Amino acid sequence: MILVTGGCGYIGSHLVNTLAEYGYQVVVFDNLLSGKESALLHHEPLVVGDITNPQDLTSVFSQYQVDTVIHLAALVNAAESVVQSDRYQQVNNQGSKNVWQAAMSRGVKTYLYASSAAVYGTPPTRGAIKETSPLLPTSPYGVNKLAGERSLAAITGNDHQAGIFRFFNVAGAKTEGRLGQSKASRAIMQRLFAVAHGEIPSLKLSGHDYDTQDGTVLRDFVHVEDVVRAMLLGVKHLQNGGVAFTLNLGGGHSTSMKELHTIVEEVTGITIPLTYAKRIPGDIVYSLADIALAQTTLDWEPAYNVRQMVADGWNAYVKRN
Questions:
Q1: Per the structure, how many domains does the chain have?
Q2: Is 141 a catalytic residue?
């Protein structure tokens, strides 16, 4: 059985539903602070608990015969982490350690961890970021995601299978629109949709004087369905005795915030007013994933472009709001 922490969240719900569709037995562990039980379309068993509480984790491992852990539960707002660094340390660092320790105590052998491109920070030189690039996180979010990677490496040995995925900017939704990001998400695409949907008057971009082609930061977007497919391949790889891995999951292309704004206007057919604010401390300026290692290790490559992510994300936003 596979335990998915954070399985009621955005990425988690997409993953859990796909695992169920492929016949895997899944149990979900989630505190439901941001995720919703209604996102479990196949009604997988849910244990409500928090990764910061070791007793909650002990309970789920006592109830279910888990052989694989996919750890997604986390706080994910890099800007918020700057002003709530202690909370991010407690959840993303110590919470991850709690997951590893509880799983190890029950003999779990296979682990997948959802890390982040935030572990790289802003690279010292431009170009695609490889898994071997310097790890220079600029926010407590990135620092604690990196700590989660290291604690997993420290606790697993030769008789364990561990995989780490460094997500770049995950976007989009299942094409039928039943799942998607929370309306409360601070992700840039969701905020653009909120303006297009008439919920807020304009989009406030933080920083427009960076050393980029149009002054706004660059991001590498990857469709959530591509991420889920990679994670499914990762599960199969590890359960079949494949070597441990650390892999970037991105689209392999950079998009500026102004470019994204234009694409959202074109897809929705709605004019979205822009305003500008000062830079966010610790914000990453440019991001581009080198995905060659994921391609060779898992025979994976992204199938969706940014325009399709916007179209699927907008479809889900309208249906769910």
A1: 2
A2: yes
